[in-house]
Amino acid sequence: MRHYTPAPVLRALALTALLPALAAGADLIGAETCKACHPSAYEAWKDGPHARATASLTEAQRQDRRCTSCHAPDADKGASGVGCETCHGGGRVYAQAYVMRDRELARAVGLVEPGEKTCLACHTESAPSLTRFDYAHKLPLIAHGREPAEGARRRGHGE
């Protein structure tokens, strides 16, 4: 009878526990990369307020961390405005087609499915705005991603 050695099991468990932490610090891949498989989501983003978030600031505000923490949160990583990965997490690990086809795996390695709490990180009562942020009202204005990934579908990888 073979002796059971838990080392491989322990290594697998450790790796599973570390993957989300690695993905959280994952490099950004940029909206152009996301566009390859999600062109309609990209178009919705490109034409929306998040893509232009930095442009809406004055030059002085662009130097003020109180403003850029929401209008350009990933500027230190070379990203402008509020991009896909600002809300969905750094995509270096989860953007691979084989990962994106497996929703559970994609989430396990860093894909964030944002909700109201994500939005409220920036859209707060103290944020300068003409109107109070109403998640239910604002969400349809940026709706995207409900359609199957078009690039994956073209390659025969439907969801």
From TrEMBL:
<dbReference type="InterPro" id="IPR036280">
    <property type="entry name" value="Multihaem_cyt_sf"/>
</dbReference>
<dbReference type="InterPro" id="IPR023155">
    <property type="entry name" value="Cyt_c-552/4"/>
</dbReference>
<protein>
    <recommendedName>
        <fullName>Cytochrome c-552/4 domain-containing protein</fullName>
    </recommendedName>
</protein>
<feature type="signal peptide">
    <location>
        <begin position="1"/>
        <end position="23"/>
    </location>
</feature>
<feature type="domain" description="Cytochrome c-552/4">
    <location>
        <begin position="33"/>
        <end position="89"/>
    </location>
</feature>
<dbReference type="Pfam" id="PF13435">
    <property type="entry name" value="Cytochrome_C554"/>
</dbReference>
<keyword id="KW-0732">Signal</keyword>
